[in-house]
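Data availability (excerpt). The following record was deposited with the supplementary files.
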Amino acid sequence: MKVITKVAELRRALADVRNAEKRIGFVPTMGYLHDGHLALISASREHCDVTVVSIFVNPTQFGPNEDLSRYPRDFARDEALCGSAGVSIIFAPSAEEIYPAQFESFVEPGELAKPLCGAFRPGHFRGVATVVCKLFNMVQPDVAYFGQKDFQQCAVIRRMTVDLNLPIEIVTVPTVREPDGLAMSSRNRYLCPEERDRSLAISRGLFAAARAMADFG
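Predicted structure:
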């Protein structure tokens, strides 16, 4: 497994792969990996010859009062997990590599980004769409894998990919949950025991609604 930090080196490393007509799978992450990320890696390895995982905490998707500075980071742990999971390349660029001096061009998503999470986090999906578009251009994968947990993000990225004619297949992978039903997330570590217990109301409500719909149908 290679760990690459520069775009130019990444492109050189993937040139031979592409020339050999091998299929490239891509899993973009912000690190602090868990079993949900490993499920994406597994899906990529099943269908692709080479799997690239990016680890980059993207500053443009964080609001001014959000958790950019304290977002969980543990690159040594992430590297070990990727190695065990069969990842071919980790792309771990610096912020300066992604957003060089005088950077000023952004991808502005449309109506899909306005409700739900977008209503409470102004500019969030602008940052997400921009960094994913840049990573797509850097990696140039055949397939990119995302978790269904981030449903609105998946919808925004799928729309962007179609609208900008990016030749990439977007695959969504089912949400991976803890044994009690809580969706796995890097930010779960923020929860105190009381908050952790209260958070189960979300998955319980979703499963109850799904059962009710099934009974109705």
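Summary of structural features: The CA atoms of residues 142 and 168 lie 5 Å apart.
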